[in-house]
Design brief:
single chain; alpha/beta; six-stranded parallel sheet; two-stranded antiparallel sheet; 16 helices; 8 strands; 53% helix; 12% strand
Length: 348
């Protein structure tokens, strides 16, 4: 297996795509990028990740002679591109236009089928191309939101590892912090990096560092052969919230919703081990980059307290850890997202 290379360029998105050979490629993109992409060659615009929808889209292009698939856009387009490449056995190039998740270089796609979300094995990209001007283009507040979302997804590795270790030891107190740090080292490195900032800035260096974290996190999934160390019940909570509430992906991003479960679990870990250091560091990073830390901030992306209580209890039906905490979910949520945080983050 040859792992994909991450390539940066200061050229425009159209220049990148032309360099990858759009004349023999099927371009898979989203509604935002479609106006530009469709002018360059044959394209599919993807609006949802349901399996039936994707298969129907693919039928229309099955008899055409494309040697390459180029996936252009955010997570939806990249997942669809990987899925199409798997089904057609075509060479795949990935061109993210936002850094909204930590999975730009993986060989897996999230597909919705029969009322559930599934992470399935698809195709490893040949290479991943980042046009820095494209990532930075647009309203700075929106660009910040997408970058924060990608970092929020990366921080989820911490709660995924904590949950895995809890399953092994049946108690947070028996978990080796050195082992947690080792298994989620990329997330801890990113956490220290964010907390070293005086403020959240947007420039070429930040884009390149954030993209490298996403790329390396993706390669960890590829090498492990699964996403257990990067996606635990914080992702199950995210999917349950989507099923229940159908949030707009632009308003409540993947990383913002995933960050809820991460903060939730690190709070429990801190209370169990009598050290709130990790929880405090995570909250500090969240505040710096704009991930939600209060009910008011959750409300701003349409996430209500009642949504979380319901979803946590539903996730508890297939997670040992969540089944234990579901009965006290309102108390824990209020401790994390309510208005009396100070007494909950002091180091004992």
């Amino acid at each position: 297996m040859t792992e994909p290379k991450l390539k940066f360029t200061s050229t425009s998105l159209s220049t990148v795509l032309k360099g990858l050979g759009v004349k023999r490629a099927l371009l898979v993109t989203d509604t935002f990028n479609h106006p530009l992409v469709s002018a360059l060659g044959d394209s599919i615009v993807v609006t949802t990740n349901t399996k039936k929808y994707l298969n129907n889209l693919l039928v229309g292009f099955s008899n055409q002679k494309h040697d390459v698939i180029i996936a252009v856009g955010g997570c939806l387009a990249l997942d669809a591109g990987r899925y199409f490449a798997k089904q057609t056995q075509k060479l795949l190039f990935i061109v993210p236009t936002i850094l909204s998740t930590s999975c730009i270089s993986v060989d897996r796609s999230v597909i919705h089928s029969k009322g559930r979300y599934f992470s399935i094995k698809t195709t490893l990209p040949h290479s991943v191309h980042i046009s820095i001007p494209t990532i930075l283009k647009g309203n700075p507040l929106i660009v910040r939101k997408w970058v924060a979302s990608g970092l929020g997804d990366l921080f989820a590795n911490i709660s995924a590892v904590l949950e895995q270790e809890y399953e092994r030891k049946l108690d947070f107190k028996n978990i080796s912090s050195d082992r947690v740090n080792s298994l989620a080292y990329l997330s801890f490195e990113a956490l220290a990096w964010v907390n070293s900032w005086k403020h959240f800035r947007l420039d070429k260096a930040v884009v390149k560092r954030a993209a490298r974290f996403s790329h390396l996190s993706s390669l960890s999934v590829v090498r492990e052969g699964n996403s257990k160390l990067s996606a635990g019940s914080e992702h199950a909570l995210y999917y349950q919230l989507l099923i229940n509430e159908r949030y707009s992906h632009e308003l409540a991003t993947h990383g913002e919703l995933v960050s809820i479960g991460t903060l939730f679990i690190t709070y429990l870990y801190g209370k169990s081990t009598d050290s709130m250091d990790l929880y405090r560091d995570l909250r500090h990073a969240y505040k710096k980059i704009g991930l939600p830390t209060t009910y008011d901030e959750l409300e701003s992306i349409c996430v209500r307290r009642s949504h979380l209580v319901k979803a946590i209890r539903q996730v508890g039906t297939h997670s040992r850890l969540y089944s234990l905490i579901a009965p006290q979910s309102t108390k824990i949520l209020d401790a994390v997202y309510g208005y009396n945080h100070a007494k909950n983050i002091s180091t004992h």
